[in-house]
Structures
1.
Amino acid sequence: MSLPVPSPEAVVVVTGASSGIGAELARQLAALGHDVALVARREDRLQELAEEIRAGHEVQVTVHASDLRERAAREALLGAIASSGRHVAGLANNAGYGSTGRAWELDLEVEEGQIELNIEALHHLTLAVVPEMVRRRAGAVLNVASGAAFQPMPGMATYAATKAFVQSFSEALHAELAGTGVSVTTLCPGPVDTEFTEVAGIDESRFPGLLKVSAEEVAEQGVRGMLTGKRSVIPGTPNQALALAGRYTPRSVVLPVLKRQTLS
Ligand SMILES: NC(=O)c1ccc[n+]([C@@H]2O[C@H](COP(=O)([O-])OP(=O)(O)OC[C@H]3O[C@@H](n4cnc5c(N)ncnc54)[C@H](OP(=O)(O)O)[C@@H]3O)[C@@H](O)[C@H]2O)c1
């Protein structure tokens, strides 16, 4: 069944809902009638979005200001949902960030934070909600990876490695869950105009415009993936071609090309 029909006892959790793709996911899930739990650190942004969604749709919206790098914050989030008497019917693990430069020259805390958020938080939240979804024989997890998952990326070494983890873990789980009514979809966007670029220090002029897909379109394809239980979603035909190239081109070719693109 994947993402079940909306119910007052159920909630769909969206992490990283204070901007970009996550805010769009929350809007679109609410438009389908789902109650949504919005999670990120910037509470003012979440409250603003919650107001906007409540004004447009007859759904319940809760706001959870959490630093998901912290295990205790994740447990508090899960605890708050459980004590509200609701279960998680859908989870969009979207919160994430990147960094650009030679990994050993970057701030170690910023590098480690990517492992804590992009990997540990996603892994924890996924495995925390899937057992109940399996008991109910319905539920959908959307794990946001990236085009960076398909090959190592000199200049974004930590980020690409975290997204390779997301992809490998999520695709394996998708196969493990076959026949249970629960799905895990991996969303692999290429470049999207969001705050991500600024946070990661990416020079946007290095990405050809034709690779760009809007946050709305990426979210729409992600939500469709949750509804249909798709294993993997790569928005945009050029990004699908690049993903294939990243996966199958010999590393001896792909590594110097990406190094030149990101670090020169
Ligand atoms: N934009 C792209 O080009 C692109 C391409 C491929 C994949 N992606 C992936 O798409 C996902 C969404 O990114 P985006 O493009 O929408 O970027 P964004 O606009 O920067 O959004 C990132 C979200 O993550 C949240 N976040 C960051 N650190 C957090 C923490 N410690 N705890 C809780 N939430 C945290 C941010 O909220 P707060 O700062 O309020 O906490 C924000 O809501 C990420 O996983 C990213 O890796 C993006």
2.
Amino acid sequence: MRLFHDPPLPSPFGQAGMSRENYAGFFWEFVRDRRAVGAVAPSSQRLARHTVNAIDWSRVQRLVEYGPGTGAITEAIMERKPPQVDFFGIELNTRFVAELKERFTGMTVFNDSVANVGQLATSLGWPHVDAVISGLPWSSFTEGQQDEYLDAMQRALSPHGQFATYAYLTGLPLPAAKRFRAKLHQYFPHVKRTRTIWRNVPPAFVYYCSK
Ligand SMILES: C[S@@+](CC[C@H](N)C(=O)[O-])C[C@H]1O[C@@H](n2cnc3c(N)ncnc32)[C@H](O)[C@@H]1O
């Protein structure tokens, strides 16, 4: 019989440092709040690395992660981020915040909404944010939420700000996903899309946007 205390999953879809218990916890949070969590499982290592590698790190001094969840993308950020880059996360789910603090000792993570990114950055004395890496489920959001979060990010980002976020291939036909893509072009002069990362459940790709 397999127990939740089994060692971390070796699957190509798995995350280093994530146990079956972590996966079950993530799924449970999805059941509790589908719209905000927006995925049945955390991102794979491959998707996390693609998301983080989309950023031009030579232009980043201050970075914010949106919706770190249980830390799939956070782990890739920690691996890739030059040590001098200041970094914090914003996570709405209280349980995930507790897990993140346990997994990444010393990480600054606010239990708050990304709508407040400007105030949170100011509270740390940051004049602006150079890059946002997002794990938010943009295609589960209403148009009002998409606008609120993109407006707040636009105000917080520096004049050369960058934004990377992943999207699920399966969600692309949804009106909210199409609307989000159209909005990216309204907010950013440069929008690119990576190839599909098939080793993720579900398969996904990354939008990279810059001012
Ligand atoms: C699809 S999960 C991604 C988790 C993780 N980044 C990953 O890739 O595995 C989306 C996360 O965004 C968080 N979230 C949703 N709306 C949010 C908001 N307005 N502000 C901050 N976090 C939010 C959810 O609680 C959830 O942890």
3.
Amino acid sequence: MHNVPITARRAPLRRTALILAALAAAAPAIAEDFGDTPYVQTPQNVVDKMLEIAKVGPRDFVIDLGSGDGRMIITAAKKRGARGFGVDLDRRLVALANRNAAKAGVADRAVFYERDLYKTDIRRATVMTIYLLPEVNLMVRPKLLSSLRPGTRIVSHDYDMGEWTPELSLVMDAPGKTVGRDMKSKVFYWVVPATVSGTWRWQVTRSGRTQDFDLAAEQMFQNFDGTVVSEGRSGKIEGGKLAGNRITLATMIDDGGGATRYEFSGRVAGDRIKGEIRMVRNGETSKTPWVARRVEKRQPRHMSLPPPTPFDPPR
Ligand SMILES: C[S@@+](CC[C@H](N)C(=O)[O-])C[C@H]1O[C@@H](n2cnc3c(N)ncnc32)[C@H](O)[C@@H]1O
């Protein structure tokens, strides 16, 4: 683990610092400024809510990007028995966070490093927490989606992630909040989806007859669409959805002698899917195992979205 010198910060951080400085200046009585890097705290009741929404527990490894005084990871360790680390560019905040962890008796499970969040290895996380800015969220989004394992939960204070629809969002009272006028906080929650873009293939044997199926999936975050083709007949994917590794989709294919509705559910493991197919034809339902393999991989659409423009104002 290497330290990143303060001077190595990137242009986005300067913008972050400027906007945070403006936010902090808006509430000078309460906002704390540790000098070089302005920072805004998440109120403790919002920290508690974020960890509750992500269902953080003793098996979790939590990473906070831009960890401030360490409250997110310290609370995750102290109240929920988790482990984790935080990173921040401000070495005084990092020192404060490590002191706070020691005071709370969780220094063995909550550790803080002076490091740039963009250069942080986050692959170990089962839960990620962030309180950054809208454009920083968008800049960090590709890293979250490409580095984190499917099923990893992400919770963000106040800002969303653009086109990535959250699984849950709420507004709550935030007494003592140091920015804004209404003492309210927003919380957003996502689950990192498995990557299913590309072409998948499987067979179904019914009444002694084996049928080949191809699924061509175009993925945008946790949703995907495309077509299922079997023996020259095709059906549009309906409700293609990923909840971490869990995949569900349905389609209707008319083979000339009548329409069959296929409902698929299973788990994605790399280039394999294992699950079940439920088929409904002429009012009769049957089930069969579903074992599919990916024969062609493609990049999900969400990985080629344009980066945010530098001067997007905070929403
Ligand atoms: C809004 S504060 C959030 C602090 C804490 N996570 C909380 O919720 O109370 C954002 C923090 O991110 C840090 N930060 C900003 N850009 C960073 C970067 N590129 N790498 C690491 N930390 C960064 C700032 O120093 C600041 O402490």
